[in-house]
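Give me C-alpha cells for this 297-residue protein.
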Amino acid sequence: MNGNHNIGDVSRISGIPKDLLRMWERRYQYPKPTRDLNGDRVYTDEELNKLVLIRQLVDQGRRPGKLMALDISELSELLKRPKVDFDFDRLIDLLKAGEAIDLHDWLHDKLQQLGLGAFIHRVMVPANQKVGEAWSEGDLAVYEEHLYTELIKNLVRQSLAENAHPGSGPRIMLTTLPGEIHSLGLLMVEALLRLGGAEVISFGIEMPFRDIKEAAQHHKVDVIGLSFSGNFKLDDAIVMLSGLRQMIEDKTEIWVGGGAFPEDAELPPGIGLLYGLHGVEQALANWNRRQTDPVII
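Here you go.
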C-alpha cells in the first residue's frame, strides 16, 4: 500500500461518508490526516485500516467515540465478539408456542430499530446459533426451526428490496457447492455485501461446477463467493475447491467462508478464506483498496 490516501478513496473504501469523516476529526480528534501542498487531507495506511474496522463496529451498534482510542488489534478482537442485546428465551418461547405473527412483528421491530447490518450481527448470528442448539437438544421441532429460518429470510429479503441501490463495487456471484443445502449464511453474506456497495448475483444452493464456470464467464463476475456450513466436511470442501479453482479464470477471485472452516484452515492456492461475517466486510474493503493500489494482494 502506498500510505497516501485522499478523503475520496478513504470514504469509498471504508464506507464512511466524507462529511462524517470530517465530523469525527473535529469531535474525536481522529483520524488525524496530514495535508498535501494543496491543503487536501492525506490519510495513512494505518488510519485507513482502522477506519474500516471502526465502520464495521459502528454498524454492529457500537459508539464511535469509544472506538477511536483503541488500536487495530483491539478493534479486530471486538469484531469477533458482536454486541448482543436480544431476548433469546422469548425467541424460543414464541417458536414453541407457534406464534408466527407475533414472532414476525417482534423480529421486524428489531430490524427497524437496528438497521439491517446491526440486525445481522447482533440478532441473526447469535439467534441462528441459539435456534440450532435448541433443535439439536430436542427443545425445538424441525418445523419450528424451519419457521424461524423462513421468517428471518423473508425479513432480510424485504429489507434488501426496500433499500436497494446500484452497486459500485465488485460483481460477486454467490452460491454453494453440491452437498451444501444451507442457504441462511449465504443470505447474510449477500446482505452485508450489498450494504457495502457490491453488486451481488445470487444463484441459490448446490450449483454444479460447470454451471458455476459458465455463469461466472457470462456475468463477468469479479468474485465467486461460496458458503459452507459446519455440517460440511473440511476435507471434502478442500478437494472440491481445488478442482473448482482449476476450472475458473485466474482473474476471478474465489472467496469462501462458513462454519466448515477453522480460522487457520489451509486452503488451496487462489482461495480466499473469510473468517466470520467481519471477514466478508474486510474482504470487500480490501478489494476496493486494490482498485486504488493494484500492488495490494
